[in-house]
Amino acid sequence: MKQIDKILNKDEKIIWQGTPQLLPFMFKNISYFFIGLILSIFISLIIYSRISFENGGLKVIEVLDTPFTYLFGFIIFLFTIPAVFYLFEPLYFLLLRKNTLYIFTDKRVLIQSGVIGIDYESFDYDQIRDLEVNITLVDKIFGKNSGSIFIDIGKVTAGRGGRAIPAYLGLEGITNPYAVCEQLKKLSYNLKSDEKFPNEKRLKENSGYQTEIKS
């Protein structure tokens, strides 16, 4: 049994499912990766400058025991932390992609993710307030018709000055993002229409929108 089957209802049907493309998902924060690379080169040059090559061997240049020396070493250490984090972030996304799955059912949207354990997040179609498609330079370079869909379901996060800003859920690095977005938009619109105008209360002849969902 697949992991996702454990949380699907008996009468719940999968309409669409997809996984992120490898490179667009791994390098979605590529700017951070380059920052980590630059910091690593900088730190390596500093360390290299403290080493001399004598008689075919390595010798560490004597370091003065002064407060400035310790302060400088502490600053280098602080640079090392983000350098390591940013450099290995693509590896984290590589491991995360293995368990990442996006699903549209006839009832809700499901997002499966996780590196060690598997987590699930789900929301109903009537919670969708806004949809955005984002095609980045990484998608253009590394992807094959890839992009991301960001979904506003009313969640907020704290911004500057305590202002509430939307916290979007992302379907990242997926194939054919515009087509998938239209499908998601249609599912959401169909469900909202069906809740407001159930089939048994509709006129037999109606020039309005006809949904495919049966109440």
Structure overview:
The protein has 215 residues and is an alpha+beta fold. It has one domain. It is built from five helices and eleven strands; from the N terminus they run E-H-H-E-E-H-E-E-E-E-H-E-E-E-E-H. The strands form four sheets. A four-stranded antiparallel β-sheet has the order 1-4-5-6. It has a three-stranded antiparallel β-sheet with strand order 7-8-11. The two termini are 30 Å apart. The model has no long low-confidence stretch (mean pLDDT 77).
Low-confidence stretches: none
Q: What composes the largest sheet? A: 4 strands, antiparallel
Instruction: Find the structural class using helix and strand composition.
Output: alpha+beta
Fraction of residues in helix: 25-40%
Q: What percent strand?
A: 25-35%
Q: How many structural units, i.e. domains?
A: 1
Number of helices: 5
Q: Measured on Cα atoms, how large is the radius of gyration?
A: 25 Å
Mean pLDDT score: 77
Order of helices and strands: EHHEEHEEEEHEEEEH
What's the helix and strand layout?
Elements lengths: L13 E5 L3 H5 L3 H20 L1 E4 L2 E4 L6 H32 L2 E5 L2 E6 L5 E6 L5 E5 L2 H6 L3 E7 L3 E3 L5 E3 L2 E7 L1 H20 L19
Antiparallel strand pairs: 1-4, 2-3, 4-5, 5-6, 7-8, 8-11, 9-10
Write out key terms for the chains shown.
215 residues; 4-stranded antiparallel sheet; 5 helices; 11 strands; 39% helix; elongated
Short description:
This protein has 215 residues and is α+β, with helices and mostly antiparallel strands. The protein has one domain.
